TrEMBL record:
InterPro entries in alphabetical order: DUF1223, Thioredoxin-like_sf
Source organism (scientific name): Parerythrobacter lacustris
Domain of life, per lineage: Bacteria
Protein name: DUF1223 domain-containing protein
Any Pfam family: DUF1223
């Protein structure tokens, strides 16, 4: 696990986590990465991976996210962060907004929170080291058992979509543009010389504004983000960022 020095006092035992996770950095695969998760595809669970091309501990978590992305009961989003760029390689997929979201999760003090990589956060409720498949599976099942809103999506004749939050008031709905798969040849840093694959990488994120009837419109032009070939919508609580619902379009 990689943790910036300026926040080394986060509420997680960094040394212990590094000891477990660093054992995967030699190229070996973590155990139990093939997950069959018993959550309802009607209300998918959001899995967000915070990762970095400059983090030697991250490739096993990137591989796990690729497996999870095949599960229809999950919405998997990869969010490369910026704070390891100083180690000799600038992450070609990183966005500062991803870093800020992770810091927001940490400031809320959710279980397993902190600013480190690799980290997986489930529904904005709890996090864990991103390569710990068994813990990820447990957190997904815990979150799937909690109430979720249902996002109803209908195609519009003029293009785009109309989205209803099913009476779930007070939340913020975002449209997330994704690239379903990216392979990066990393030239320098801790992963120098490696080709690493990333699944459902965030390219852009846009807050949607509800119309007069309370539903949201996604215009066709919003589905033309450069490099994106997949889109998802995420409904969050305003105050704390907990995810009420998520789904692919």
């Amino acid at each position: 696990m990689k943790t910036p020095a300026l926040i080394a006092a986060i509420a997680i035992t960094a040394a212990g986590v590094w000891g477990l996770n660093h054992s995967f950095s030699s190229g070996s695969s973590p155990r139990a990465t093939s997950l069959k998760l018993a959550s309802s595809s009607a209300s998918p669970v959001l899995v967000e991976l915070f990762t970095s091309q400059g983090c030697s501990s991250c490739p096993p978590a990137d591989a796990l996210a690729e497996k999870l992305a095949q599960d229809p009961s999950l919405v998997v989003v990869t969010r490369p962060v910026t704070y390891w760029d100083r180690l000799g390689w600038k992450d070609t997929l990183a966005r500062e907004a991803n870093t800020q979201l992770q810091r927001s999760y940490s400031s809320r003090g959710i279980p397993g929170a902190g600013v480190y990589t690799p980290q997986i956060v489930i529904d904005g409720r709890a996090g864990t080291v991103g390569s710990r498949a068994r813990e990820v599976r447990s957190l997904v099942r815990d979150s799937a058992a909690k109430p979720h809103a249902v996002l109803k999506v209908a195609k519009r004749k003029e293009g785009g979509f109309e989205i209803s939050t099913g009476g779930s008031n007070g939340g913020e709905l975002s449209l997330v543009a994704l690239t379903s798969h990216v392979s990066v040849a990393i030239g320098r840093g801790e992963n120098g010389g490696r080709n690493v694959g990333y699944s459902n990488v965030v390219r852009a994120e846009t807050k949607l504004v509800p119309g007069k009837n309370g539903s949201f419109h996604v215009e066709q032009g919003q589905l033309e983000t450069k490099g994106a070939d997949r889109y998802a919508v995420i409904l969050r609580d305003r105050a704390e960022g907990t995810v009420r619902a998520a789904r692919y379009l």
